Amino acid sequence: MTTDFPDKDLYETELYLSRETDTLFESGEWPKPFVFNEDVARVFDNMVSRSVPLYREVIACAAQWTRAYYQPDTRIVDVGCSTGTFLELLGRYLKQPATLVGIDNSQPMLEQARQKLAQIPAIHTVELVCTSADQFSFTGSSIVVVNYTLQFLPVQQRQKVLQAIYDGLVEHGLVFVSEKVKSPHPQFQETITQHYEAFKTHNGYARNEIERKKEALDNVLVPLTEAEQRQILIDCGFQQVDTLIKLHNFVSMVALK
């Protein structure tokens, strides 16, 4: 583990985000069920930053933990890398040469990532792979980041992916997982939903947009509880598991092999 961090604080650094505004659910045709197609990829940066509380802080936190636990001559893998925001930030501030691998099963997302990562420092090797998480080999990785990806997989497939990550990580390798979760308590879940929808309203989404997207995500995004997510990590073999960030129905966790 390294503690030799650059002077510039990651939390003061701007993310490289597209300026295309998300208006997909305003009127007319809208993606139902929700899919990561070309239209979504084009506005994804705006969509995720307006829909996920503390998104910027989560990306910065993932970069900090990656810098702390990266082992030379291993790979850093971003599962469901989408438009490459995490890898781009990491590439700017990771001073050790590294192989940065982004995987996503959406080719339009990878095209956005390819443009975003074009100016990454030459000390790094960048690989973008169009594949699903359950088809990828994580062998030789010291860091695997899985931000808001498992929640879109069938529940029974999530442990399979995390087990493959555990098996592929080198000793003392780290997985950083962010997920939308649900409360085990119905009353709390109702309150959480109210606060989350208020958050989206504050970020400029109209009520009809919120309702349409909720309908589009029905049976596409299926959240677990935080305890269930933690237990899957433990069942896969991770012995140290901790929660780093949580606000309402979004949580970021780390687990060490």
TrEMBL record:
Its EC number is 2.1.3.-. S-adenosyl-L-methionine binds at Y55, G80, C81, S82, D104, N105, N147. The keyword Thylakoid does not apply. GO terms for molecular function: carboxyl- or carbamoyltransferase activity; S-adenosyl-L-methionine binding. Residues 76-173 form the Methyltransferase domain. Pfam families: Methyltransf_25. GO terms for biological process: tRNA wobble uridine modification. The keyword S-adenosyl-L-methionine applies. Keywords: S-adenosyl-L-methionine, Transferase. It catalyses: prephenate + S-adenosyl-L-methionine = carboxy-S-adenosyl-L-methionine + 3-phenylpyruvate + H2O. It comes from the Bacteria. It is an enzyme of class 2 (transferase). Belongs to the class I-like SAM-binding methyltransferase superfamily. Cx-SAM synthase family. NCBIfam families: carboxy-S-adenosyl-L-methionine synthase CmoA (TIGR00740). Catalyzes the conversion of S-adenosyl-L-methionine (SAM) to carboxy-S-adenosyl-L-methionine (Cx-SAM). HAMAP family: Cx_SAM_synthase (MF_01589). This is Carboxy-S-adenosyl-L-methionine synthase.
